[in-house]
Design a protein that fits this description.
Layout lengths: L3 H8 L16 E5 L2 E4 L4 E4 L2 H4 L8 H11 L13 H13 L4 E7 L2 H18 L6 E5 L8 H5 L17 E4 L7 H11 L4 E6 L3 E2 L5 E2 L2 H13 L3 E5 L23 E4 L11 E6 H5 L20 H14 L2 H21 L5 E7 L2 E6 L11 H11 L2 E2 L6 E4 L7 H17 L1
Parallel strand pairs: 3-15, 5-6, 5-7, 7-10, 10-11
Antiparallel strand pairs: 1-2, 2-3, 4-12, 8-9, 11-12, 13-14, 14-16
Bound molecules: pyridoxal-5'-phosphate (PLP).
Organism: Nibrella viscosa
InterPro entries: Aminotrans_3, Aminotrans_3_PPA_site, BioA, PyrdxlP-dep_Trfase, PyrdxlP-dep_Trfase_major, PyrdxlP-dep_Trfase_small
Pathway: Cofactor biosynthesis; biotin biosynthesis; 7,8-diaminononanoate from 8-amino-7-oxononanoate (SAM route): step 1/1
């Protein structure tokens, strides 16, 4: 009999996967807490929250119960001309916990669409007020998603090369990592003019770009500068939202406030696909008119899906609980302690931490890139020891669900140390 993995290979094309050389995918049959179980009964500690989405553990009974009840009440309804309790309640509960000035919630399906919506809101804002602006400024090595608009504002790389001719023009400044702050500021200053519609950034942590981290002070300065030229500020908190950086949102580390925000991933606790774009009142107001052409003509079939909104509400209950808040601080301080341990290893470079995210580079001889084979060595070594991590090239990082126990964390750290000893 064929295994599920073999049946998969016959019919499925996986994301970010070279199907010719990829090993058979591991078939996961269930999950509980931070642990995944495969067909053969093997366990894996999910140290990357299943691509940064999971907050409270897999198959969380409280979220399951809430979604299940919603499923028997209202599974979906068109969101133009209609509304429903979960969508309204989620918006009512999100706005007060976001940075000031976020006044309206627009729903979509995922992180990329949340970014698309933010970009369309920004461009059309300028269009609607009769002062069209066409340029966006972004950070080098940014990642904002895989749809065309989101790809356009992301860092240009081997991943985007086939599409370069189709991506709109974006200007880049260096990520303002320690030592490059002045350079980033100077470059931004040089690029700003009255054609810049928006400045988009992943606040404090650039995820897919390699868990690149920078300080709130320099981001405040960049935001101030961009705003002085009128640019709208888009904080892409798709990854950093919901506690990852130690605060509820990375923007809470800032004194400056974004005009638009993008949320997804942890929004539903990692249960279901949902995207949110929020905006300041002034942006919303620019779309109010007797003129129908000032409407935001954007929507998805599953906009504000009631099941996803319910999952988000349930996840929010858990996120705001004392227990989760304590867990976030616990993981952050365990990470902090582990950074001391990491410093003893010669092959470890550039150790960095922001809240529950810990990252470092593995020093390698030769080329360092996503395609570096140290990535495969580390990935396989850890997987064989029941730890799911997925290095970004030579960047190893832990981004755990908040329910990960001290025992599990200790185990993960120990496997990482064993890996480092072999390098
Ligand atoms: C993952 C990610 C996205 C894209 O989200 P998807 O749901 O994968 O489309 C956008 N921005 C950031 C910062 C992300 O980490």
């Amino acid at each position: 009999m064929q295994t599920l993995s073999e049946r998969d290979q016959a019919v499925i094309w996986h994301p970010f996967t070279q199907m010719q050389t990829a090993p058979l995918p591991i078939s996961i049959t269930r999950g509980e807490g931070a642990v995944l179980y495969d067909e053969a009964g093997n366990q894996y500690i999910d140290a990357i929250s299943s691509w940064w989405v999971n907050l409270h553990g897999h198959a969380h009974p409280y979220i399951a119960e809430r979604v299940s009840a919603q499923l028997r009440t209202l599974e979906h309804v068109i969101f133009a001309g209609f509304t429903h309790q979960p969508a309204v309640e989620l918006a009512e509960r999100l706005l007060p916990i976001l940075p000031n000035h976020q006044a309206k919630v627009f729903y979509s399906d995922n992180g990329s669409t949340a970014v698309e919506v933010a970009l369309k809101m920004a461009f059309q804002y300028w269009h609607n007020i009769g002062q069209p602006r066409t340029k966006v400024i972004a950070l080098d090595d940014a990642y904002h998603g895989d749809t065309f608009g989101a790809m356009a504002v992301g860092g240009r790389s081997a991943f985007t090369a086939p599409f370069t001719p189709f991506l709109f023009e974006v200007d880049y400044i260096p990520a303002p990592v320690p030592g490059r702050e002045e350079e980033a500021l100077a470059k931004l200053e040089a690029l700003l003019d009255d054609n810049v519609a928006a400045f988009i950034f992943e606040p404090l942590v650039q995820g897919a770009g390699g868990m690149v981290m920078y300080q709130p002070e320099i981001l405040n300065k960049l935001m101030q500068l961009a705003r002085s030229a009128g640019a709208l500020l888009i904080a892409d908190e798709v990854m950093t939202g919901f506690g990852r950086t130690g605060r509820l949102f990375a923007s809470h580390h800032l004194t400056e406030q974004p005009d638009l925000m993008c949320l997804s991933k942890g929004l539903t606790g990692g249960t279901m696909a949902l995207g949110v774009t929020t905006c300041a009142q002034a942006i919303y107001d620019a779309f109010l008119s007797d003129d129908k052409f000032k409407t935001l003509f954007h929507g998805h079939s599953f906009t504000a899906n009631p099941l996803a909104c319910t999952a988000a509400l349930a996840s929010l209950d858990l996120t705001l609980s004392d227990e989760t808040q304590r867990n976030i601080q616990r993981i952050a301080s365990r990470h902090e302690h582990f950074t001391q341990v990491l410093q003893r290893y010669g092959c470890v470079r550039n150790i960095r931490q922001q809240g529950t995210i810990l990252a470092f580079d593995l020093a390698t001889s030769g080329q360092t890139s996503y395609f570096n084979n140290i990535r495969d060595i580390a990935y396989n070594f850890l997987l064989e020891r029941s730890v799911l991590m997925r290095p970004l090239g030579n960047v190893l990082y832990i981004l755990p669900p908040y329910c990960m126990t001290d025992e599990q964390l200790t185990y993960v750290y120990a496997q990482i140390e064993d890996l480092l000893k072999t390098l």
